[in-house]
Amino acid sequence: MSRSPLHLPILIALVASAVAVLVLGTQLDPDPRGHGTHEQLGLPACGIRERWNVPCPTCGVTTSVALLVHGEPRAAVANQPFGFLLAIGLPLLALWAIWMHVRKKDLGAVLLGPIGSRAIAICLLLLLASWGWRLIHSSSLGGASSSSAVSGSTSSSISR
Questions:
Q1: pTM for this structure?
Q2: What is the rounded distance in angstroms from the CA atom of residue 88 to the CA atom of residue 123?
Q3: In this predicted model, what pLDDT tens digit does every residue of 128-138 receive, in sequence order?
Q4: How far is CA 155 from CA 39, 101, 134, 151, in A?
Q5: Measuring CA to CA, which residue among 156, 150, 152, 131 is closest to residue 141?
Q6: What distance in Å separates the CA atoms of residue 150 and residue 152, rounded to the nearest whole number?
Q7: Contact predicate 94/18, CB 8 Å
Q8: Are 28 and 87 in contact, with CB atoms under 8 Å apart?
Q9: Domain spans of the chain?
């Protein structure tokens, strides 16, 4: 069975993304605010948060990845559930892609078909649900701040 021209680029992208997320997570110190860890990479602060004082859909994802990689899974989930799922799911997806490659399956056909469409829809729903979690727990909206819960429960790992 021949594979689509997208097979190898998809395999490489998934494996490289999983490695990059895990390696970056080990190199970053989780920001005690529960967001902003990406600023250690030279990226700007979240414009939505700065302008409207509301977290964006991905606020806290990098922090949650760093928390999980630093051995703080509960704090990672409490801070940004999607970040936790990304840090767990992306390496699992990369392993699945390698397994599919070894079995001579076409990643292009699988991921660009109905399975891929469903997976993208599920990821978007999970991202929106996690954003809702952040909005509910955001101190800027009067709720209990997830960042204070994160900094309180992980002060030893964050203060490195």
A1: 0.83
A2: 13
A3: 999 998 898 87
A4: 19, 42, 20, 5
A5: 131
A6: 5
A7: yes
A8: no
A9: 7-158
